[in-house]
Amino acid sequence: MALSDQEQQLLREIEESLLADDPKFGASVSSASRFQDGPETGRLTIRSLALIVLGLCLLVGGVALATQSLWFVSLSVIGFIVMFAGGVWALRTPADPSPRQVDRIQHPSQRGRMGSKMEENFRRRFEGQ
């Protein structure tokens, strides 16, 4: 589940305050934050989906026809390789930023209001129950 822009910003603010309070903790988790700052991936394209479906069909067809000849076992192995390649392709395709994320570039003066707005929404959710 992806976080909204406001939640990501609040998470960054919490992280910065934790790192400022405890530098030893910051040194221990700095390697983990390097992986989070990279580009987002995992966009499922038509081509990667087609490769996954084709690989699955080859895999199932090869297993179903394996009683006819042992050569069909190689067809299922090829199907697995094609399906795996489609999955890797889908994971390596960079995700495009949604228009909502591009439009929500905020000024530093709006950061304080964003945190209080999130707190208000959080309280409203749990007080209504």
Automatic annotation (TrEMBL):
Region entry Disordered, spans: 95-129
Regions that span the bilayer: 44-65, 71-91
Pfam families associated with the record: DUF3040
Upper taxonomic lineage: Bacteria, Bacillati, Actinomycetota, Actinomycetes, Mycobacteriales
InterPro entries registered for this protein in UniProt: DUF3040
Name under which the protein is recorded: DUF3040 domain-containing protein
UniProt keywords, alphabetically: Membrane, Transmembrane, Transmembrane helix
Basic and acidic residues bias (residue ranges): 116-129
